[in-house]
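Technical note accompanying the year-one report. For the benefit of new consortium partners, we illustrate the data format agreed upon in the data management plan: each record pairs a sequence with a structure-token string. No post-processing was applied to the example shown here.
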Amino acid sequence: MNKIFRTGRSFEPALVDLVIAARPNFMKISPLYRALSAAGICRLRLVHTGQHYDDAMSGSFLRELGLPEPDIHLEVGSGSHAQQTAGVMTAYEAACLEERPDWVVVPGDVNSTMACAVTAKKLGLQVIHLEAGLRSFDRSMPEEINRVLTDSIADVFWTPSADADDNLRREGMTESAIVRIGNIMIDTLETMRSRIEAAMAPGEQHEFGLVTLHRPANVDTHEALGEIVSALVKLSRHLKLTFPVHPRTAGRLREFGMMEALDAAPGIEVIAPLGYIDFMARVFRARLVITDSGGLQEETTYLGIPCITLRPNTERPITVSVGTNRLVARSDLIAAAERALSDHTGTGDVPELWDGRTAERAASHLADLLSC
């Protein structure tokens, strides 16, 4: 097996940290972990910050995606943005001082992404941002702050699409550091496709909608969440809905006394959060997806499933310009769903390099970096 060694340290392969924190990170890191393990170009250290810390939100995903038990678990847990960020920085700094990685790969846009990137750079380490360059241009979103700050200090930008490249160029990033590798979430989908399809009930009709909600703008106020719940109840009279409820959303539904309305609606199936395979089996079968998630905008575009995103903007505009995604205000949810269900003009296109081979390209590029 060919190894890339640290400069001046004979017989010691380079150490690369792969950071995971929240469930979307796991889908991005798992194919990269497999590709780098197969390539044998470095030592890997899987660092779990603990931002999603319960078994339902992280443990089951690790097992399903074939990731090993993390080498380091920072056990940060929940808290305010400041508390989470500070906790990750303090704990990750200690881990890096104990053994310094040569490269740190941070995926996505959660608090841990930014916190680990800042910590690594202050220690003089090199950082790769996986899924770099995405922009909603909405600084009221914590994720946008995380994206912008991470890209401002990263050394290498692995981007999923041409619009992300353009964003980084406008921000003055070095052209040679911008490397479009494609959408690594699609790698996970294709790797797991046979298991997802096996989890689908034979002959089940695609006559239901799938709902996911978790963003503060949609669930943290009585007015916003009430408007969505009312629309879902009305929509469920014409289209059955399955609603895996995020813990944050479940808490708000109970606090605002709205869970009863969902439970009483015969057309709405309220269920606990699902593991990746069971959740994607439902996505595969859905006639329509209603969400405020980022990743689902990409997966539905790839699968050709109409997606209604309850947000005024998206950091993934390519899913709107070429895909099946539509940005919709809460007040327009019912009308938008009816249009999506009756529109038979086409299912959109799949962006370039969303082909299930993104991790291979990332591993190849990292091999080039390590050999320099």
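Partners are asked to follow this layout when depositing records. Residues 108 and 131 are 6 Å apart (CA to CA).
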